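Example for tutorial group B:
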């Protein structure tokens, strides 16, 4: 993680083990300055990346040419299945192996042939394998999906402050590349900062999701208080009080009380570096049902 890296080579810990890294892609450039960052088409982002590898034992020493020749073999196993769900709740399955058939199981039922995307609005567990006449069956891929939360009808009802270009609605626009940010510079407001969101309908909330900005850590929330309610102007006991960690990864906060609520209010009480700001790329929930 860019914020946890050592700043000098002599601070890097060395080990005696042999480590092999298998990378589908490498960024090749890192910066934390105020200048131009990597262009979007060259950025690397977290994604599902199917891959396979083989370990071939050596019976005698080999030079580089011999090693390259020995490694020129095709995998006898089908590539694993990639399982994804779009914003409309449709689940698609693909395999990089040509002319393969995909078989899937929903919620541990019998496997069936996959022919087209399937709807999965309420969530479930999908397992899938790819099969080919000339290759062995792939390893089984399994993905658990929660209930689809459609944020297109969400609205920001109140916000303590926001800056032009990084308005509060960008914390619920389903785009991690945008963000809500409070004003900075001369006269900048200090904590607490707050935001009230109307989710459009009531949910039985299981988790709250805070996704910090992905382009730095300015404004990342440290201490917070979170409320849920069915009335936009009536807040009782907080659902949870806690701290987020200093990371750009989404943070899932378990809500033990499982409230049924339409509105939430997030109050940021401090920032990870003690600065005056608050920011959020996305705010969201996981839920088990709607009312």
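The residue assignment follows.
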């Amino acid at each position: 993680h860019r914020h946890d890296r050592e700043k000098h080579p002599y601070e890097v810990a060395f080990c005696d083990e042999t480590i092999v890294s298998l990378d589908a892609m490498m960024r090749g450039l890192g910066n934390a300055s105020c200048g131009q960052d990597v262009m979007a088409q060259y950025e690397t982002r977290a994604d599902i990346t199917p891959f396979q590898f083989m370990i071939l034992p050596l019976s005698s020493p080999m030079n580089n040419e011999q090693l390259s020749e020995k490694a020129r073999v095709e995998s006898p196993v089908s590539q694993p299945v990639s399982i994804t769900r779009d914003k409309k709740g449709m689940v698609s399955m693909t395999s990089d192996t040509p002319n393969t058939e995909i078989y899937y199981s929903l919620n541990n039922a019998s496997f069936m042939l996959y022919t087209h995307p399937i709807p999965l609005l309420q969530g479930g567990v999908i397992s899938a394998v790819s099969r080919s006449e000339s290759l062995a069956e792939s390893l089984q891929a399994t993905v658990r999906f929660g209930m689809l939360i459609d944020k297109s009808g969400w609205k920001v009802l109140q916000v303590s402050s926001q800056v032009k270009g990084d308005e509060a609605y960008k914390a619920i626009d389903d785009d991690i590349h945008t963000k809500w940010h409070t004003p900075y510079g001369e006269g900048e407001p200090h904590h607490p900062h707050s935001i009230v969101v109307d989710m459009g309908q009531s949910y039985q909330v299981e988790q709250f999701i805070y996704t910090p900005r992905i382009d730095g850590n300015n404004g990342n929330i440290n201490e917070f208080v979170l409320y849920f309610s069915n009335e936009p102007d009536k807040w009782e006991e907080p659902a949870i009080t806690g701290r987020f960690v200093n990371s750009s990864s989404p943070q899932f906060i378990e809500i033990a009380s499982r409230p049924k609520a339409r509105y939430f209010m997030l109050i940021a009480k401090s920032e990870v570096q003690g600065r005056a700001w608050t920011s959020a790329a996305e705010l969201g929930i996981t839920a088990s049902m709607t009312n």
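The domain at 155-290 is CATH 2.60.120.260 (Jelly Rolls). Compare this with the pattern of hydrophobic and polar residues in the output above.
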